[in-house]
Design a protein that fits this description.
By secondary structure, this protein is α/β, with parallel strands linked by helices. The chain has helices spanning about 25-40, 95-100, 115-125, 150-165, and strands at about 5-10, 45-50, 80-85, 105-110, 130-140, 165-170. A six-stranded parallel sheet has the order 3-2-1-4-5-6, with helices on both faces. Strand 5, helix 4 (about 150-165) and strand 6 (about 165-170) form a beta-alpha-beta unit. Helix 3 (about 115-125) runs parallel beside helix 4 (about 150-165). The longest helix has 17 residues, at about 25-40.
C-alpha cells in the first residue's frame, strides 16, 4: 500500500460481541483486524477508529458498557477515534477533513456491520474520491430471516468489490509497500 494509506476500523465495539445471536465469526474477525492493526503500526500507517453512538435502547449507547471499542483491538495512544450517529462514518464527523489534512487518499476498510456501516462508509469514501480497499475477511454481520450472515458478507464483497473498492484478503494487505 502507498504511504498515503490508513486502516479504517468501523464500529468494532464491545457490545456487538455480546448479542444473541452472535456476530458471525466474531473472534475470527477480531483476529484478522488485530493482525492488520499490527501490520499498520509496524509501518507507521495510521489506524483510524470509528465508533457508533447508539440510541436510547442500543448496546452502543455511550453510557453503556458495550460502547467502548473491543479490548482485543483497543486503540494505541495517538490512534484517532471518530464518533458517528449514522451508518456513514463521514456524515456529521470530521473524518473527511482529518484524512485530507493528513494527505490520506487510500483507505483499507474493516469492521461491523457489513450490510450497514461498512457498506455505507465504503460507498461514501468512493464517492468522495478516496481509493478504497475492502478487506473481504475483515468485516462481519448477522443473518436475518431471509439470508445468512455468510451470504450477506459474500454479497457485499461482490457488490462493493465490483464498483466501489478493491477487494483483498487480509493476508494480501502489505502496508508501507510501494504501489497499491
Amino acid at each position: 500500500m502507498p504511504n498515503d494509506t490508513a486502516l479504517l476500523i468501523i464500529d468494532v465495539q464491545k457490545g456487538l460481541f455480546d448479542l444473541d445471536p452472535p456476530l458471525h465469526d466474531g473472534e475470527g474477525v477480531l483476529a484478522t483486524i488485530k493482525s492488520l492493526i499490527d501490520k499498520a503500526h509496524a509501518t507507521n500507517t495510521p489506524v483510524i477508529y470509528v465508533q457508533h453512538n447508539g440510541g436510547a435502547k442500543s448496546v452502543l449507547r455511550p453510557d453503556r458498557p458495550g460502547f467502548p471499542i473491543h479490548p482485543a483491538i483497543a486503540p494505541a495512544t495517538g490512534d484517532p477515534i471518530f464518533r458517528k450517529n449514522h451508518p456513514d462514518a463521514f456524515q456529521g464527523t470530521e473524518l473527511q477533513s482529518y484524512l485530507e489534512s493528513h494527505g490520506l487518499k487510500h483507505l483499507v476498510v474493516v469492521g461491523i456491520q457489513s450490510d450497514y456501516c461498512v457498506d455505507t462508509t465504503t460507498r461514501r469514501a468512493y464517492s468522495l474520491g478516496f481509493d478504497v480497499t475492502l478487506v473481504q475477511d475483515g468485516h462481519s454481520t448477522w443473518g436475518d430471516d431471509a439470508i445468512s450472515a455468510p451470504q450477506i458478507i459474500a454479497h457485499h464483497n461482490i457488490v462493493l468489490g465490483d464498483s466501489f473498492a478493491t477487494l483483498k484478503s487480509a493476508r494480501e494487505i502489505t502496508f508501507g509497500a510501494p504501489g497499491a
